[in-house]
Design a protein that fits this description.
Largest sheet: 9 strands, antiparallel
Strand content: 15-25%
Radius of gyration: 51 Å
Number of strands: 21
Distance between the termini: 124 Å
Structural class: alpha+beta
Oligomer: single chain
Shape: flat
């Protein structure tokens, strides 16, 4: 199908194409620099919005996902050990699995399991950021009290450390939430009963094979440790802030060093964003409250801006939900002033750079265009000559490396093209002679020549082949015989033998068998054939030569019959000779004489 190329309305020289666009581009830059400067601030806003949407907020979202996927994976491992009976809640001596889970995950504070009998077993840190991991235990032997033990590097229990008050895991929110949800779930943010630091717990109910509740496995995550360091490392303008809120407006983590809790002891509470000591965080939280009323109303990413004391602030809000109960807001706030200083500097530098570049670009553009276009023109002219059939073209070397390589490649191509045309003409003549010889042999051969497919159809036969099978022409035979084994073989076992030999040897030699001709008569043939494969070893077809050996087989049968008859005559002659030999012997003569003297009647008396 022909391809309709778009019409070119006008044509111009390469020199013009190289010089004019650069001159126009720089001239336009100089003329429009004032307008571009005016739009620079607005463009910076758009760039910032794009950065917030696709850059920083996405990074924070990915980091959160990485933090909150691992705890659920840990719970599944511990639940499997629970159901298999690998956790000894009464007398644990080794909890290597839990010990390693806490050690290799710096943001995991602890991982543990509780049973329906009120037993509790886990491993956790002694305090936030500590590398020391302890064994936590509550069971009937401890009378329900919370005990902790020292662990060695392999998770083996060592010395007793501390004893706290009574602890029943069944009464804890993480335990009840998992049972109520009947699946993996996150708890509400709460303060750890020992450290009073904000903790988030991933919990998973554990069931027996019969569906009975065995208990719950859980993992504690403390956001302020690792995730806060990540937020602090982000480059959010010069004074921008990033923080994470729950739907109640409590700060879960931020890029600042501000404490996330207020109060002491049992009165410790998470800090509300609207009460933050960081002005940008506080004002951003108040703006979101005013804009949406309830933070639960923010279900889609938002790009917003507001003013504080006449200064514009840019805000990006991205809901974060993981399908297991997490429903937070990622907030990024950046003052417009962080970007305007760079914009003013960039605009001023751009004006001077554009003015200086304009004159230089015009001069260099003209010189470069002349230098580049001359060799290209020579190559273009030579190409036109080659297209007309004048293959003896040669391009002079160029000072430009790429154009010199192009000239060398063109010269090599022209030489190869000329040699290829000569060789092609010779090969075409040789191929023509070969095809004529093959066609003559194929058409005039006395033996039948054929090609057949692996599925049992003739692809090609010569006239001798058609005549042997009683067909008037090769085309009649190819069209008539659509199943070689069933239509031509007298004994189907000969067909099976043919395919077995082809499969094992790839050829048959001197295979003799009977076949049906077109009129139904039977003849004997001798076949030599081979299998033809492509370069990947796939069977393409069979080809071979067939001879009609019916007369030879008839002569062989007649000769065999004559030999059998001659053998019978020889055996009869031998028997006559043996009888004559016996009757002519002296012993036989003596017996005859004795018998002659015997009186038969006297003998029987």
């Amino acid at each position: 199908m022909p391809v309709n190329l778009p019409a070119i309305p006008a044509k111009f020289r390469l020199r013009t194409a190289l010089v004019v666009p650069f001159v126009l581009e720089i001239a336009a830059a100089v003329g429009l620099i004032g307008y571009l400067s005016f739009l620079a601030a607005r463009r910076a806003v758009n760039d910032l919005a794009s950065q917030l949407r696709t850059g920083l907020s996405s990074q924070i979202e990915r980091e959160l996902e990485s933090y909150f996927t691992a705890p659920h994976d840990i719970n599944q491992l511990n639940a499997a050990a629970f159901t298999q009976g690998s956790l000894d809640f009464q007398n644990p001596q080794n909890i290597a699995q839990m010990h390693q889970q806490v050690r290799i995950s710096p943001y995991i504070f602890g991982t543990y399991c509780g049973t329906e009998q009120g037993e509790f077993l886990g491993a956790g840190r002694s305090e936030v950021g500590s590398k020391e991991v302890r064994l936590w235990l509550t069971n009937t032997a401890t009378r329900g009290r919370f005990l902790s033990y020292e662990l060695d590097s392999r998770g083996n229990r060592l010395a007793f450390l501390t004893e706290d008050g009574e602890y029943d895991p069944r009464s804890r929110p993480w335990y009840q939430d998992a049972l109520n949800n009947r699946g993996a779930v996150w708890s509400e943010i709460y303060l750890d009963f020992a450290t009073f630091l904000p903790v988030l717990t991933a919990s998973l109910p554990v069931y027996s094979e019969e569906g009975t509740v065995l208990g719950v496995c859980a993992t504690d995550v403390q956001l302020p440790v690792e995730f806060r360091q990540f937020l602090s490392s982000l480059k959010i303008g010069k004074t921008g802030k990033a923080f994470v809120l729950d739907r109640k407006g409590q700060i879960l983590s931020s890029s600042t060093e501000e404490p996330l809790t207020v109060g002491k002891g049992d009165e410790t509470l998470l800090l509300q964003a609207v009460d933050s000591s960081e002005p940008l965080i506080r004002e951003t939280a108040r703006f979101l409250r005013q804009e949406f009323g309830d933070l639960k109303e923010i279900q889609q990413p938002q790009q917003l801006d507001f003013s504080v004391h006449g200064q514009r602030q840019f805000v990006q809000v991205l809901p974060f939900q993981d399908g297991r109960g997490l429903d937070w807001l990622i907030v990024i706030a950046v003052p417009e002033a962080d970007f305007m200083g760079d914009i003013y500097t960039t605009t001023r530098n751009a004006i001077w750079l554009a003015l200086g570049s304009l004159g230089l670009a015009i001069a260099l553009g003209i010189l470069t265009a002349r230098w580049v276009t001359k060799p290209i023109q020579r190559i273009s002219q030579a190409s036109n000559e080659v297209a007309k059939g004048a293959l003896s073209q040669h391009i002079s070397p160029s000072a430009l490396l790429e154009l010199d390589q192009l000239a060398t490649s063109f010269n090599s191509m022209a030489d190869q093209l000329k040699a290829s045309f000569t060789t092609l003409e010779q090969k075409n003549e040789e191929l023509r002679i070969t095809e004529e010889n093959y066609r003559s042999i194929f058409e005039n051969a006395l033996e039948g020549i054929f090609q057949s497919s692996p599925t049992g159809q003739f692809l090609k036969v010569n006239p001798a082949m058609a005549a042997i099978y009683g067909y008037d022409s090769p085309s009649e035979m190819v069209n008539s015989v659509t199943n070689i084994p069933e239509q031509t073989y007298v004994d189907i076992r000969d067909s099976q033998r043919f395919y077995q030999l082809m499969k094992s040897n790839g050829q048959v030699k001197g295979l003799e068998y009977q076949v049906y001709r077109k009129d139904g008569s039977m003849i004997w043939i001798e076949e030599d054939a081979r299998a033809v494969y492509d370069s990947q070893g796939k069977l393409l077809y069979y080809e071979g030569i067939i001879q009609d050996i019916t007369e030879r087989r008839l002569r062989e049968e007649a000769l065999k019959k004559q030999l059998e008859e001659l053998q019978i005559e020889i055996d009869q002659s031998k028997r006559v000779q043996e009888v004559n030999s016996i009757t002519q012997s002296s012993y036989f003569q003596e017996i005859q004489e004795e018998l002659a003297q015997v009186d038969i009647e006297e003998f029987w008396k």
